[in-house]
Amino acid sequence: MRSKDCLRYNYGIVVKNNYTLGTKVLDERYSPFNKNIKVIKTLGLGTYIQVDGLTQSGGIVKGIWKKTLKKILNSKTQINNCLILGLGGGSASRIVKKYWPQAKITGVDIDPVIIEMGKKYLGLDKLEVKIVIEDAYGWLDRNSKKNKYDLVLVDIYKGYDIPEMFETDKFLDLIVKTLTNKGITVFNRLYFNEKRSKAIKFAKKLEKVFSKVDYFYPEANIMFICSA
Fold first, then answer.
1. Residue 99, SS3?
2. Binning pLDDT at 50, 70 and 90, where does residue 21 land?
3. What is the mean pLDDT of residues 58-64?
4. Predicted local confidence at residue 8, as pLDDT
């Protein structure tokens, strides 16, 4: 149903659509992984990528990562190498590059279509990110002992859901192995309605793996900032 002001959840963010702002669809494509992908531009939110109606990159998602990573920046943690699992259109990588210009960034994503759209519309190609188009679990399984990262961002979704393999003990063990001694991992989770209890259940698992887990609430998401 469309109306002038209707509530909608965009990756866990409740936003009001105001159709008087002038919404324009710049591009629309189909992906075997993310299904229907659109690039949308509005006066209020700028240019952003939607996957089946959910904001994936740009817009308010960029704001979420900006607030979250600002907390890490304020802690004076040195970030020289960053790994992003679920690179998408590159919102998180843009903030990492802004806060830690010297950092080398590797971004992994299974969907070449959304990577292409990120390059074309969100400037992903200008961020000097080493892009790996591959399943994040398989890539991490092969590389967790080869490279060490000061910061790992985990932002892997399929629609509203996270594939089960990315919440297993094995996956968390791989994350720990790829961190430096003082490394930090950030997990992005939806936090509304029934998603709240699932997120907290996952947090309890994280607390058994990491030495410290901080909860941060930007908008309607919850971010778990985990120390090795």
1. helix
2. low
3. 94
4. 36
- Gyration radius from the chain CA atoms: 17
pTM: 0.89
Cα–Cα distance for residue pair 187/152, rounded to 1 Å: 9
Provide the terminal-to-terminal Cα distance of the chain, rounded to the nearest Å.
46
Of 46, 63, 72, nearest to 12 (Cα)? 63
Q: Do 228 and 211 form a contact (C-beta atoms < 8 A)? A: yes
DSSP 110: S
The CA distance from 57 to 54, in Å, is 9
Report the distance separating Cα 183 and Cα 77, nearest Å: 9
User: With contact defined as beta carbons under 8 Å apart, do 28 and 41 qualify?
Assistant: no
State both tokens at 104.
Answer: 């080398």
Q: Is the confidence at residue 80, as pLDDT, over 60?
A: yes
Residue 125 CA, distance from chain mean position? 17
Assess whether pLDDT exceeds 80 at residue 5.
Answer: no
Element (H, E) at 209: helix 195-209
pLDDT at 28 over 70: yes
In whole angstroms, give the CA distance from residue 100 to residue 127.
12
Using the 8-state DSSP alphabet, how is residue 225 labeled? E
On the CB side of 129, CA atoms within 13 Å amount to 32
The residue type found at 197 is S
Which residues have a Cβ under 8 Å from the Cβ of 194 and sit 6 or more positions away? none
